[in-house]
Amino acid sequence: MSLVQIYQTFFRSLRNPKRVPTFVVTLDALGTIYRFKHPVATQYVDLAHTCGLKASIDTDQLNDSFKEAFKHCYAVYPNYGKRQLESPKEWWTKVIHRAFGRFVDQDRLPENLASRMYDHFAGSNAYELYPDALPLFNTLRALKKDFSDPDGPLILAGVVTNSDPRASAVLQAVGLKVQAKPPKRYIGEALSNAWNDARLERIDGLFASDALTFSQYNDIDFLSTSYETDYEKPDPNAWTEGLKLVQTLPLVRKAVSFRGSPSANVLEYMHKTAQTVGYRAGEVMWLHIGDEYQKDYLGATAASLDALLLTRDNDGEMPHKSNVSAPDVPTISSLDTAAMIINLKARGFFQRVS
């Protein structure tokens, strides 16, 4: 492979990139993938007593107080205090102190109460995976295995949620494999460095770059939280931000596939790089699943996506806002059903576009 041929490959990749058909499934988080193990107010009271609070507090009254505190703090400090407060933890501290302040003087609250609660609601002590989520993720794992060729169709799963950044920790805590470090939204710098590596006779710098991360064994390939993107569902931009990551992942997947076969020399490295830059997302089919009609179903369809409204029966203490009377809204009562729909849609889509 000569240098001239490498440059020909590079420019051919740019002019006529390989368009990879991509099937995307996104889900809401709380109320769809996982739920509270116990009612929030019960967990609040138990933690407060663990921290040393002696006062007796009625959980129903605390629940009402928590709702009021949440609403108030969100109005004063939108999006969990982003750009106004130091961190989401400071925002939640205000919520917790206001919620308990109806029953206990501020100076009687344990000093570690807010910190303890913030950490508690980032793990498996507070949440649990819905049993019907496992069949869905098993289906996605099987699909990813069947479509693992870096030159072929791509299956991606993401989460779009109105949440602070703890959503990633919660998803991992309930047993899911989450892409720990999503690809940088702009990977041009990594590609530019690849040519500098070659010029300096450093081999395979691009394919070792931490800007390029992808694994077919992830349950969640990307996460779009309202805190990080500045967009809340039902704003269609909540999904548009996720699409920016989706567009880069065919290239990232191709680059990662080269890690198992180190280049023998600089020319081989340059040739692999020239091939990699030619991968793009082609036709995309996107299905969103969530339990709230306004935020999930209407938001996703406003973003021109397919959507399923999840309306579970007998879901304990979980509050769902699926009240909908429109007869043409596609609903499911379990993620088991969603798993079957995803399998059929993905395989049918890839067969149609192949």
Write the layout of secondary structure elements.
Layout: H1 3-15, E1 18-27, E2 34-36, H2 40-50, H3 59-76, H4 78-81, H5 88-101, H6 113-120, E3 127-129, H7 133-146, E4 154-161, H8 166-173, H9 188-199, E5 222-225, H10 226-229, H11 237-257, H12 266-276, E6 279-290, H13 293-302, E7 306-310, E8 331-332, H14 335-353
Parallel strand pairs: 1-4, 1-6, 4-5, 6-7, 7-8
Antiparallel strand pairs: 2-3
Helix pairs in contact: 1-12, 2-3, 3-5, 5-6, 7-14, 9-12
Protein name: Haloacid dehalogenase, type II
Organism: Exophiala spinifera
InterPro entries: HAD-like_hydrolase_domain, HAD-like_sf, HAD-SF_hydro_IA_REG-2-like_cap, HAD_sf
Which second-level CATH architecture of the largest domain applies? 3-Layer(aba) Sandwich
> What would you report as the Rg, rounded to the nearest angstrom?
23 Å
Measure the end-to-end span.
30 Å
Order of helices and strands: HEEHHHHHEHEHHEHHHEHEEH
Low-confidence stretches: none
Q: What is the mean pLDDT? A: 89
Count every helix, treating DSSP H or I runs of 4 or more residues as helices.
Answer: 14
Give the neighbour order of strands across the main sheet: 5-4-1-6-7-8
Fraction of residues in helix: 40-55%
| Overall domain count | 2
* General form: globular
Number of strands: 8
Instruction: Tell me about the largest β-sheet.
Output: 6 strands, parallel
What do we call the CATH topology of the largest domain?
Rossmann fold
Give the percentage of residues in beta strands: 5-15%
Q: Which class do the helix and strand fractions yield?
A: alpha/beta
CATH superfamily of the largest domain: HAD superfamily/HAD-like
Q: Quick one: CATH class of the largest domain?
A: Alpha Beta
Protein name: Haloacid dehalogenase, type II
GO cellular component, one term: nucleus
Pfam family, one: Hydrolase
InterPro entries: HAD-like_hydrolase_domain, HAD-like_sf, HAD-SF_hydro_IA_REG-2-like_cap, HAD_sf
